[in-house]
C-alpha cells in the first residue's frame, strides 16, 4: 500500500503537510514509551523537539525561559539593539522557573485607577524610579487595592513596605515548598545585582504552582553545563552583526541562528566561516533553505544545524511576492535526506498549525519544529491581549512585514540597503492559547500518539522507518482532506488549540 517517501517526493510536486498522509504501521509499545528526545544542532540536545521562532511577537525572555523549562528552546529575536537582545538572553538564563506573570512597576507617587493595571499579576511593585531595575520600595497587593474606597490616593499611602522575597536561583520545587510552608499567595523572586541592590525578576503564585503541578510531565528542562536554561538567539549577516555576536556570546547564548529567508548566499557563507573561526565551540544554525543544493552549500561552510522553510509560515507572503519557495513537506524531506548524511539536524520552520503537522515534520526527517503562530497567542509571547469580535487575541506579525522591517528586520530579507521596502509578510492577530506550559505538554502527548500509530518509539526510529521504505505515504485528494477534518456537523465544540 502507499508509496515510499523517495518515490512520493520525486514526482515534481511541491507538497505541504496537509497534502500528505502516513499509512499506519505496527504498534508494539505503549504511548508513554515514545521518546521525543532529539538534537537541535550537532551539539545541543533537547528532551522536547520544539523551538520558538526568533520573531518579535514570539520569543523574548518569558518565552525562552518557558520553552527551556519544558525541555525545548526559544530563539530570541534580533529586531532590537544588540545590548537589549543580550539583556533578554541574560534575563531568560537567570531563571530556574518560567515567568507566568507580567511584572508591573510603579512609583510611590502614582495612583492605580483601574484593576486592569495589575494585568494577571496579584501585585504591583513600587520602585524608586517607577520602573524595573530600580530600588524596591514596597508592593501593592491587588487584594489591598480592591479594598480602597478612594482609588485616586497615592500608592505611598497604602503600599506594603516589606515583602518576603526568594532568590531567582531557587528551583520550582523549593519555591513551591516555601509558598506551601508559609501559606503565601505569591512570592517575588529577586536577583542580586551587586551595588545596584536587588532586582525583581519573577513572581510565582500558589495558583501557578498548582497549575504547573497538574500539567503532564515532559522530559528534563534544557539546561547547559553552567546549570542555566539553554537560550538561543538570532543574528544577521551584516558587518554589524559581528559586534552583535560579541554581545550574544558575553550574555551566555547557547546557540546562534543566522536569520535569513534565503540562506544560500555569499553573505551567510562568509558569516558561517567567521563565526566558526571565532567561536568553534558555539553551535551555529544556518538557513533558511528548502533545496538539497542550498543545504549542501551551508553544510560545507560548517553549520551545525539547518532551518528549513521558505514561504510556508502563516504570515509569509514570500511565495506570492517573489515566486520562490517550496511546499514544506517536500522541503523538509529533501533537505533532511542530505543533512542526515552529514549528521546535521534539521529544524522544520513554519507552517505548523496542529500536532499532526508536527508528527509529519518529525517523521519526514526533521529533528525539531520551529513555531511562530502556534505559540504567538500564548501568555509567554510578548505583547498584550486585546479583544477582536469578542475573541481574546494577541498581535502576531511577520518579520518581513513593513511594520517589523521599520524596526530593523529588513536585513533578514537582504533588503536593508534597498530604497524601496517590499513586504514579504503581514501583520495580524492570533487567538489566546493560554500558557505554553500547558499547550506544549498536551501537544507533545498527541505527537507521541501519532508516532505510536506509525510504530516509531523515537524520532530516530521514525526516520529509519521512512528511509527503509517500511513507512508509506499517500497524497490526499481535496475530498480526502475534507474527510480528514471535522465535517457534516451543524456545530461542534472547537478544540482549545
Ligand atoms: P508560522 O507558520 O509558525 O511561521 O507562523 C513562522 C516562520 O515564518 C517565517 N517568517 C516569515 N516568512 N515573511 C516570510 O516569508 C515574514 O514576514 C516572516 N516572518 C517570519 C520564519 O521562518 C518563522 O520562523
TrEMBL record:
Pathway: Purine metabolism; XMP biosynthesis via de novo pathway; XMP from IMP: step 1/1. InterPro entries: Aldolase_TIM (IPR013785), CBS_dom (IPR000644), CBS_dom_sf (IPR046342), IMP_DH (IPR005990), IMP_DH/GMP_Rdtase_CS (IPR015875), IMP_DH_GMPRt (IPR001093). K(+) binds at residues 311, 313, 316. Mycophenolic acid (MPA) is a non-competitive inhibitor that prevents formation of the closed enzyme conformation by binding to the same site as the amobile flap. In contrast, mizoribine monophosphate (MZP) is a competitive inhibitor that induces the closed conformation. MPA is a potent inhibitor of mammalian IMPDHs but a poor inhibitor of the bacterial enzymes. MZP is a more potent inhibitor of bacterial IMPDH. NAD(+) binds at residues 259-261, 309-311. Gene3D superfamilies: Aldolase class I. It is found in: Cytoplasm. Its main location: cytoplasm. IMP binds at residues 314, 349-351, 372-373, 396-400, 424. The active site is at 316 (thioimidate intermediate), 412 (proton acceptor). It comes from the Eukaryota. SUPFAM superfamilies: CBS-domain pair (SSF54631), Inosine monophosphate dehydrogenase (IMPDH) (SSF51412). Residues 159-222 form the CBS domain. It catalyses: IMP + NAD(+) + H2O = XMP + NADH + H(+). GO terms for biological process: GMP biosynthetic process; GTP biosynthetic process. Keywords: CBS domain, Cytoplasm, GMP biosynthesis, Metal-binding, NAD, Oxidoreductase, Potassium, Purine biosynthesis. Belongs to the IMPDH/GMPR family. This is Inosine-5'-monophosphate dehydrogenase.
Amino acid at each position: 500500500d502507499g508509496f515510499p517517501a523517495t518515490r512520493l517526493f520525486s514526482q515534481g510536486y511541491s507538497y505541504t503537510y496537509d497534502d500528505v498522509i502516513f499509512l499506519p504501521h505496527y504498534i508494539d509499545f505503549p504511548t508513554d514509551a515514545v521518546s521525543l528526545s532529539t538534537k537541535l544542532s550537532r551539539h545541543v540536545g533537547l528532551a522536547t523537539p520544539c523551538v520558538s521562532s526568533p520573531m518579535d511577537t514570539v520569543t523574548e525572555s518569558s518565552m525562552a525561559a518557558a520553552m527551556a523549562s519544558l525541555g525545548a528552546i526559544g530563539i530570541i529575536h534580533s529586531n532590537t539593539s544588540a545590548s537589549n537582545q543580550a539583556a533578554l538572553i541574560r534575563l531568560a538564563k537567570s531563571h530556574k522557573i518560567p515567568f507566568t506573570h507580567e511584572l508591573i512597576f510603579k512609583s510611590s507617587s502614582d495612583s492605580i485607577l483601574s484593576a486592569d493595571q495589575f494585568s494577571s499579576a496579584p501585585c504591583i511593585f513600587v520602585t524608586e524610579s517607577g520602573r524595573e531595575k530600580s530600588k524596591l520600595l514596597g508592593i501593592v497587593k491587588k487584594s489591598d487595592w480592591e479594598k480602597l474606597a478612594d482609588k485616586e490616593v497615592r500608592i505611598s499611602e497604602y503600599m506594603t513596605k516589606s515583602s518576603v522575597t526568594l532568590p531567582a536561583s531557587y528551583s520550582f520545587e523549593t519555591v513551591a515548598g516555601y509558598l506551601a510552608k508559609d501559606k503565601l499567595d505569591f512570592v517575588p523572586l529577586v536577583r542580586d545585582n551587586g551595588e545596584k541592590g536587588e532586582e525583581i525578576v519573577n513572581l510565582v503564585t500558589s495558583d501557578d504552582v498548582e497549575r504547573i503541578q497538574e500539567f503532564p510531565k515532559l522530559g528534563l528542562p534544557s539546561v547547559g553545563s553552567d546549570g542555566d536554561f539553554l537560550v538561543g538567539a538570532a543574528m544577521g549577516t551584516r558587518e554589524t552583526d559581528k559586534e552583535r555576536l560579541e554581545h550574544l556570546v558575553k550574555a551566555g547564548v547557547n546557540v546562534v541562528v543566522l536569520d535569513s529567508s534565503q540562506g544560500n548566499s555569499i553573505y551567510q557563507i562568509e558569516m558561517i566561516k567567521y563565526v566558526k573561526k571565532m567561536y568553534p565551540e558555539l553551535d551555529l544554525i544556518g538557513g533558511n533553505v528548502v533545496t538539497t543544493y542550498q543545504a549542501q552549500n551551508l553544510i560545507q561552510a560548517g553549520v551545525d544545524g539547518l532551518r528549513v522553510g521558505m514561504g510556508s509560515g502563516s504570515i509569509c507572503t514570500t511565495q506570492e511576492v517573489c515566486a520562490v519557495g517550496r511546499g514544506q513537506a517536500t522541503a523538509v524531506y529533501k533537505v533532511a535526506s542530505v543533512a542526515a548524511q552529514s549528521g546535521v539536524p534539521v529544524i522544520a520552520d513554519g507552517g505548523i498549525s496542529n500536532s499532526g503537522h508536527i508528527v509529519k515534520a518529525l517523521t519526514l526527517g526533521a529533528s525539531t519544529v520551529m513555531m511562530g503562530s502556534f505559540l504567538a497567542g500564548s501568555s509567554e509571547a510578548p505583547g498584550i491581549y486585546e479583544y477582536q469580535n469578542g475573541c481574546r487575541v494577541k498581535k502576531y506579525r511577520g518579520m518581513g512585514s513593513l511594520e517589523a522591517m521599520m524596526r530593523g528586520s529588513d536585513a533578514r530579507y537582504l533588503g536593508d540597503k534597498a530604497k524601496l521596502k517590499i513586504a514579504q509578510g503581514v501583520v495580524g492577530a492570533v487567538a489566546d492559547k493560554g500558557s505554553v506550559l500547558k499547550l506544549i505538554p498536551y501537544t507533545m502527548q498527541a505527537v507521541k500518539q501519532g508516532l505510536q500509530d506509525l510504530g516509531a518509539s523515537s524520532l530516530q526510529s521514525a526516520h529509519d522507518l521512512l528511509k527503509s521504505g517500511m513507512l508509506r505515504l499517500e497524497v490526499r485528494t481535496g475530498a480526502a482532506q475534507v474527510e480528514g477534518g471535522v465535517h457534516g456537523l451543524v456545530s461542534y465544540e472547537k478544540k482549545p488549540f
